[in-house]
Amino acid sequence: MDLNLKRKAVNFIFVCLNDDSSTSDSDDEDDLTDFLAAMSDLNPRRKKPQNRHRQRNYVENVVVNFRIDEFKTFFRIGKVSMQCLQEKICETCLEQNLSGILCREAAGGTVQKPLPDRILMFLWFMSNQDKYASIADRFGMSESTASYAIRNLIAFIHDHLLSKVVVWPTIAEQQEIKDMYWDLKGFPGVVGMIDGTHISITKPAERGVDYYNRKDYYSVVLQAVVREDLRFIDVFAGFPGKVHDARIFRNSPLFVNGPALCRDGHLLGDSAYPNLTWLLTPFRDNGHLTEAQIQFNYVHSSIRSNVERLFGILKG
Predict the structure, then answer these.
(1) Residue 48 lies in a domain
(2) Which residues does 167 contact at the CB level (< 8 Å), separation at least 6?
(3) pLDDT tens-digit series, residues 143-154
(4) pTM of the entire structure?
(5) Which of 134, 165, 196 is the last residue of a domain?
């Protein structure tokens, strides 16, 4: 190191220790700044930023060559569904004049990844249990960029697309559902099936015991209503796994809006739910059920199995 620079630094420290006014000449301050900067540069422990080695052009070189079955294996949906999602996002952004999803103005950093790449990354995140580091490496970006892109798409889908996809059937559609189940099962008035399922989570830092369910893992509960073609028509999620389905139901908007939504029809639910005029549950088997009640429970269960099938598809 320059001997003159060392001398200036020592002189500055000496002046500071002996000057009652606690002031120093600006030149001395500049000398100390230069000295500390030089010392920092010579510090062997200081790590210089290095470029990480990541996969390059994964989408362009690998994903584009996937067969239909290969694509669905990795992303859990088909290419047509992925393109449909992309079109819905583009239409919504253009209709509502939303920015940040289709394109983002560069602020001096890296150029934003194309929307199809970000959708694929989002689907990979939703379909696999990889960490952000692994996903970022696969799609050739930093962890912070991958995390922001994925969370941004999740927020967008929740805020702008959920209400367009999860919709209650119209009066005409309800009548079609009722007619179908009457013709197939001889069961009148069915417009949907309701049930709850546990979504596994990591133990929360606060009040974790409330999320420990009867199946011995931590979860939040998803309450859902399903129609005959395995589509969600109402969802309500977030209650801790320890909370009973009936309590979740009574705290959901459906409990208040159900009579108006079902009109002269009804939902089918299991014995965890209360029996209401618009929500029918099976007869409790006390060993003395009549033949009619046993038949009612059998048909009720066969129709209600649709919601279990959809939960299986969702978790698959």
Answers:
(1) no
(2) 233
(3) 888 999 999 999
(4) 0.74
(5) 165
